[in-house]
Write a structure and sequence with these properties.
The complex is a heterodimer.
Chain A (H helix, E strand, L loop, with lengths): L7 H49 L11 E4 L12 H14 L5 E8 L12 H10 E9 L5 E9 L3 H44 L12 H46 L5 H26 L8 E4 H14 L4 E2 L7 E4 L1 H18 L3 E7 L3 E7 L34 H11 L3 E6 L5 E8 L1
Parallel strand pairs in A: 6-8
Antiparallel strand pairs in A: 1-4, 2-3, 3-4, 5-7, 8-9, 9-11, 10-11
Chain B lengths: L9 E5 L3 H13 L3 E5 L2 H10 L4 E5 L7 H11 L4 E5 L4 H9 L4 E4 L4 H16 L12 E4 L2 E4 L4 E3 L5 E3 L2 H11 L6 E2 H9 L10 H12 L9 E4 L3 E4 L4 E2 L1
Parallel strand pairs in B: 1-2, 1-3, 3-4, 4-5
Antiparallel strand pairs in B: 6-7, 6-13, 7-8, 8-9, 10-12, 11-12
Helix pairs in contact in B: 6-7, 6-8
The chains are: A alpha+beta, B alpha/beta.
Chain lengths: 441, 243
C-alpha cells in the first residue's frame, strides 16, 4: 500500500476524496437512469403521437412535421441492432392511444452529417446530436399489413453530463477539503510539536510545548508539559541528591587521603593511597552512571582515531605498554569526554587483568569497531554477558585484591549505548579477552 | 616574598571540614610552610587583613559565603594567589573557579604531596618575577587554523572536528599556546606541564612535541607551528588569538 499516505492530513484528504467519488458516482448513476427514463418517455410519447396523427390523417403526416411515411414492407433489415426498451415502451403507449400495431420494430444506425434530421433545430443542437446521437428508425406494422415508419435522433451518450459530474465533484472536493485540511492542520501541528518535544526530551532537551489546537489536543499538551516538568524535576532532584552523596562521601575520603600522608611506612602509605583512589574512582563511576541519562556534554564531530590515540597515550604516560597502530582519521559524532571514558575503562581492564594489550580501530561501511584485546585469563564463556551488569564480581582470576567492583564495564556499555552503539566481549583464540565497541557511522 | 616567620611562605587554609583542614595544616607545616587556618569565609577575611598571606588554599563548598565568592573578593582586592579545593571534577567548576581568579585547583580527594607541589609551583612562578597568570585555562586560543578549547580540553580543526589530545599533549600545547613566540626550554616546559596533572612526569618533552606535530603540522618533518630552537628548546612560531 505504497500509495496510502502515512500522515493524518493525507489520509483524511484521500478518504474524503474516495467517499466523495463514491457518493457522486451513485448520484450520477441515479441521474443517468432518470434521464434515460425521461428521454425514453419523451421519444416514445412523441413518436406514438405522430403515428396516431398519421393514422388519423390517412397514413401520412403533413408539412414540416411530416416525418411519418408508409412502407409496404418492414423497412428495417434483419440483423440491425434495435432498442427493445423503446419498442416495448412504444407498444404500450400506442395501445393506450388505441393504435393497433401488430409489430413494433426499431433499428439503430449512425447519424451522418447529411441526415435530414439534423436540418431542424439550431446549430448548437446539430453539433450536439452529431456528437452524441444515433438515428433510430421506428416502424410499426398496421393490421392491414402496411408499415408506418419514422426516424428520430436517439441520444445514447451525453458527455456533458460526465463533465458536469467531474466539475461538480471537483468543486465539492475543494470546498470540503479546504476546511477539513485546515482542521487537520490545527490538529497535526500541535501534535507535531508534541512529538518533537517528546523526542527532544529523550535527548535531554526539556522544553515545554506551546498549548494550542483543539481542546482535546490542548489538554493532551498540557498533560505532557506537566509530565515533562515532573520528570525534569525528579531528574534534577536525583542530580542534586547524587551531588550531595558525592560531596558527603568525598569529604571523609579526602580527610582520609590527607591523614594517610602521616603513615611512616612507604608501602603501607602507597597501598592506602591506592585504596582511596580506587574508592574515589568507584564513586566517580557510580555518579557518572547515575547521571548518564542527562549528559551535560553535547555531541560533536570528533576524530575517533585521535580519541583512542589520546587515551592510549595517557596509559603510556603512566608506564603501561599498550599497542595502537597509527590509524587514519575517522570522524564520528559523539560525546568526546564520555567516549574517552568508555575506551579508557576497557583498556584499564585489559591492563589490569591481561598483558600484551593491543588496541585497534576497524572501520566498516556502516559501523566502526574499537577493539581492545589482551592476553589474559579471559572470562568463562557463561559469564561473558553478566560482567556488564553493575556490581558484578567474578570469583575467579579476574577478582581484584582490593575488592573492586565491576562498574567500569557497566559504565562503558551505558556510554556506548547512549551513543547508539554496543559493546561486546569475546574470548580470544589462544587465550585472552577482546572487548569490542561498535559505533554507527 | 613577604613572610612573617623567616623564609617560610605563609599559607591561609580555608575549609569548613576540620577533618581535612587540621591534618592538612599539619602536613603543610611539615613541608616547611607557615599555615593559618580558617573555618569559614568570614574568619578568612579577618585573617587576610591581619596577616601578610602569600597564598590561599580555599575550599569551594562551604556553608555561608562560599569559596568562589571569597575567591572573587581576594582577586579583586589583592594579588594573593589562590588554589581551589573542589569536590567535583566537573569542567564547569574548573572554568568558573579559574574565571573567579584562582591560580590552580585540586580535586578532592587529593594527595597532599600534589597540593604542596602546586603551592610551590605557584609561589615559584610569582617569585621568579612572573606575573600572575589568572585563568590560564579558561577561554579558547586560535592558532594556524586550529582552536584549542581549554574548557573542554579539545583541539578543533578548521572543519570543526574535535581532535582529542592526551593529558601530556594538552598540557604541553597549552603551555606553548599561552606563550607564543617565546623560546621555552625543556626544563621550563617540564615545569609548566607537570604541575598540573600527575601524568607525564618521566615522558620526554621531545616525544610529546613530535606527537603533537604529527597531529597539527601539515608536514611533521618540516614543522611550521612548533619549531625547534637549536640549543634552546621549542617555540610556537605562529600568532595566537584569544577567542
Amino acid at each position: 500500500m505504497r500509495w496510502w499516505p502515512r500522515n493524518l492530513a493525507g489520509q483524511m484528504a484521500l478518504l474524503i476524496a474516495l467517499a466523495l467519488f463514491v457518493a457522486q458516482a451513485i448520484t450520477f448513476s441515479l441521474q443517468l437512469r432518470e434521464r434515460r427514463q425521461f428521454a425514453l418517455a419523451q421519444v416514445t410519447g412523441q413518436a406514438a403521437t405522430r403515428f396516431a396523427d398519421a393514422i388519423e390523417r390517412g397514413g401520412r403526416s403533413q408539412g414540416e412535421r411530416g416525418r411519418v411515411w408508409p412502407s409496404a414492407t418492414n423497412p428495417i433489415p434483419p440483423g440491425v441492432p434495435g432498442e427493445p426498451a423503446v419498442a416495448g415502451n412504444l407498444r404500450d403507449t400506442l395501445a393506450e392511444l388505441g393504435v393497433q400495431a401488430l409489430r413494433v420494430e426499431t433499428g439503430l444506425a449512425p447519424l451522418r452529417p447529411d441526415n435530414p434530421l439534423l436540418r431542424r433545430g439550431p446549430p448548437g443542437r446539430t453539433r450536439f446530436l452529431l456528437a452524441n446521437a444515433d438515428e433510430l428508425t421506428l416502424a410499426i406494422e398496421r393490421p392491414d399489413g402496411g408499415w408506418l415508419v419514422q426516424r428520430v435522433p436517439w441520444v445514447q451518450r451525453d458527455q456533458s453530463l460526465a463533465w458536469r459530474l467531474a466539475a461538480q465533484t471537483g468543486i465539492l472536493f475543494v470546498v470540503i477539503l479546504l476546511p477539513v485540511l485546515w482542521a487537520v492542520r490545527r490538529l497535526s501541528r500541535p501534535l507535531g510539536d508534541l512529538t518533537r518535544a517528546a523526542q527532544g526530551f529523550g535527548r535531554g532537551e526539556a522544553r515545554p510545548v506551546a498549548v494550542r489546537g483543539p481542546h482535546d489536543v490542548a489538554v493532551l499538551i498540557g498533560a505532557y508539559n506537566a509530565l515533562a516538568a515532573r520528570v525534569t524535576e525528579m531528574l534534577d532532584e536525583k542530580d542534586r541528591m547524587l551531588g550531595a552523596i558525592g560531596h558527603d562521601l568525598r569529604t571523609p575520603l579526602a580527610a582520609l587521603r590527607v591523614r594517610i600522608e602521616s603513615v611512616e611506612d612507604d608501602t603501607d602509605r602507597a597501598r592506602m593511597a591506592d585504596t582511596v583512589d580506587e574508592m574515589n574512582r568507584t564513586l566517580d563511576d557510580i555518579l557518572s552512571l547515575a547521571r548518564l541519562g542527562r549528559p551535560s556534554e553535547p555531541p560533536t564531530e570528533v576524530d575517533l582515531s585521535a580519541l583512542v590515540d589520546a587515551v592510549v597515550e595517557d596509559f603510556r604516560d603512566l608506564g603501561q605498554d599498550v599497542a595502537f597502530p597509527e590509524t587514519d582519521r575517522l570522524t564520528l559524532r559523539l560525546r568526546p569526554a564520555l567516549m574517552r571514558r568508555a575506551v579508557r575503562n576497557l583498556i584499564e581492564n585489559a591492563v589490569k587483568y591481561g598483558s600484551e594489550v593491543a588496541v585497534s580501530i576497524e572501520p566498516g561501511a556502516r559501523a566502526v569497531a574499537v577493539v581492545v584485546a589482551d592476553r589474559g585469563p579471559g572470562i568463562p564463556a557463561e559469564r561473558l554477558g553478566d560482567v556488564f551488569d553493575p556490581f558484578t564480581r567474578l570469583e575467579t582470576s579476574r577478582n581484584r585484591d582490593t575488592g573492586g567492583i565491576g562498574l567500569g564495564l557497566a559504565l562503558t556499555r551505558a556510554i556506548v549505548r547512549e551513543a547508539g552503539g554496543d559493546v561486546t566481549l569475546t574470548n580470544r583464540h589462544g587465550g585472552g579477552l577482546a572487548a569490542t565497541i561498535t559505533l554507527p557511522r | 616574598m613577604t613572610s612573617g616567620m623567616g623564609d617560610q611562605p605563609h599559607l591561609l587554609l580555608v575549609d569548613d571540614e576540620r577533618s581535612i583542614r587540621e591534618p592538612l595544616a599539619v602536613y603543610l607545616t611539615k613541608q616547611g610552610f607557615r599555615v593559618t587556618q580558617a573555618g569559614d569565609a568570614e574568619s578568612a577575611r579577618m585573617r587576610l587583613a591581619a596577616y601578610a598571606i602569600d597564598l590561599v588554599i580555599l575550599d569551594i563548598m562551604m556553608p555561608g559565603e562560599d569559596g568562589l565568592s571569597l575567591c572573587r573578593h581576594i582577586a579583586a582586592t589583592s594579588d594573593t594567589p589562590v588554589i581551589l579545593l573542589t569536590a567535583r571534577a566537573e569542567e564547569t567548576d574548573r572554568i568558573v573557579g579559574l574565571e573567579m581568579g584562582a591560580d590552580d585547583y585540586v580535586v578532592k580527594p587529593f594527595s597532599p604531596r600534589e597540593l604542596a607541589t602546586r603551592v610551590k609551583v605557584v609561589l615559584r612562578r610569582l617569585s621568579a618575577g612572573g606575573t600572575r597568570q589568572h585563568a590560564p585555562e579558561s577561554g579558547s586560543y586560535g592558532f594556524a587554523g586550529w582552536v584549542l578549547k581549554s574548557g573542554e580540553r579539545a583541539l578543533v580543526d578548521r572543519e570543526g572536528v574535535s581532535v582529542p589530545l592526551s593529558t601530556g599533549e594538552y598540557n604541553l600545547l597549552l603551555a606553548l599556546v599561552t606563550r607564543p613566540r617565546q623560546v621555552l626550554t625543556r626544563d621550563q616546559l617540564l615545569d609548566l606541564t607537570q604541575g598540573r596533572e600527575a601524568a607525564a612526569f618521566d615522558r620526554a618533552i621531545d616525544n610529546q612535541v613530535s606527537r603533537l606535530r604529527r597531529k597539527i603540522e601539515v608536514d611533521p618533518k618540516t614543522p611550521e607551528i612548533i619549531k625547534t630552537v637549536w640549543g634552546g628548546g621549542y617555540t610556537l612560531a605562529t600568532e595566537v588569538v584569544r577567542l
